[in-house]
User: Fold this.
Amino acid sequence: MPPGTQLIEPTAGFCVKSTVKKMTSEISKSFFEQKCFVNICFHDAVEKPEQETVTGPNGERGSNWKLPYRVSKLRYDRDNKGTLCSTYDVVFNNEVQKFLVHAEFKKFVADTAVDGIQQVLAEQKEKISMDYKVMQNMNCKGDIPSLMTIKVKTDNPLIDNLDLDNVETRLQKEIEKQKDLHMT
Assistant:
């Protein structure tokens, strides 16, 4: 493993289904829609959530949350009809699970996960719909979440500031090259 990284095996929590608009042509600005599954997962290596009690201007008390997460790389799967679909794992700290008994908090976690994927997709000029459905009979698309490499704090500020998303191994480059050859 590269310095400043850790390989984790997240635990599945629940799954949401949405759609992604993917660009087919930059010139004509044409898009197609594809199903997208978001696995909400958990692991202790992700930073813990933080809750802060606040008082609003009307005197009502509420909570502000800091909810750290990590988004996996895209992986492809097939839906029940055999159609190609996108799948992402979004990993939160294990402590988040104890609050999922509250429907509003579960929606907050799902919204945060979908928004995290939206930030990733925006780089490719793609967009995920915020109109999603929590899957009742599926905890994880693909049975188990994929292994994930995450950035961890070290004593070296150079390593801590390294952008892992822009670092590709030779194997990853070769896989992308083969995918491009076979997809076109």
About this structure: The radius of gyration is 18 Å. Residues 5-155 form one domain. The chain has one domain: 5-155. The chain has three helices and eleven strands.
